[in-house]
Design a protein that fits this description.
two-stranded antiparallel ribbon, 3% strand, MerR-type_HTH_dom, two-stranded antiparallel sheet, mainly alpha
Length: 232
């Protein structure tokens, strides 16, 4: 007979609480849990692998993605779950390429064009948002945090951004998922102002390293997920 685990044993094995295990069950993220003749819950090796897969996916992907994937797997929609993971892998590849692209941009002295779009010193927030690939709300937030500065059109009061501020916004948009502290961002933008390329390159190397670490966690999550799929 396959080994079984009590909730306490499973919680200890995974270094979580029994409440966390119950929450995963209530969210339909693992197979239905059987009960003994005395109505006590117990877990099988299939449940153990499901929990391992879930915990690994949480480390490598956003929590909603991990939950959605495990929910799909429980419903038997394996291919849909795999395609969801595939999209996340594509997204991290795009993010890496963007960081590398912006690193190349930093070294450019001529910033009159970006991605075949004309850059001026009087761009509206909507124009800047399109060029940088971010929402205007993100730009307003960065301005509120003192990371960027917009001028005001004296005729209508609208925000106007220069090419220098646009470059900052592009840098912020490329590193927003790898730099979590405002002070780190401020130091980086100060280095950008003074053309301190050594500091800037160091920051981008840290960003790329964080992406590499996230990729490794994602691959570990995928490995555990595939083991779970093969258990069925």
């Amino acid at each position: 007979m396959d080994k079984t685990f009590t909730p306490k044993q499973m919680a200890k094995r995974l270094h979580v609480s029994t409440t966390t295990l119950r929450r995963y069950e209530n969210l339909d993220l693992v197979p239905d849990v059987p009960r003994t003749a005395s109505n006590r819950r117990y877990y099988t090796p299939l449940h153990a692998q499901a929990f391992l897969a879930l915990r690994s996916l949480i480390k490598g992907f956003d929590l909603p993605i991990a939950y959605d994937v495990m929910n799909l797997l429980k419903k038997g929609r394996v291919e849909q779950a795999l395609w969801m993971i595939n999209l996340q892998q594509y997204n991290i590849q795009v993010e890496k390429q963007r960081v590398e692209e912006v690193m190349s941009l930093i070294h450019q002295t001529d910033f009159s064009m970006y991605r075949n779009i004309q850059v001026t010193d009087e761009m509206k927030i909507g124009e800047v948002a399109v060029i940088a690939g971010v929402n205007p709300s993100a730009i307003r937030h960065w301005e509120k945090e003192g990371l960027i500065r917009a001028k005001r059109n004296p005729e209508n009061g609208y925000r106007v951004f220069t090419s220098r501020e646009l470059k900052k916004i592009i840098v912020l948009s490329s590193l927003r998922k790898t730099f979590f502290f405002i002070e780190s961002m401020k130091q980086l933008l100060e280095a950008l102002e003074t053309h301190d390329l050594t500091t800037i390159e160091r920051s981008f190397k840290v960003a790329l390293q964080k992406l590499n670490e996230q990729l490794e966690k994602q691959m570990n999550g995928i490995t555990e997920m595939m083991r779970y799929i093969q258990c069925y």
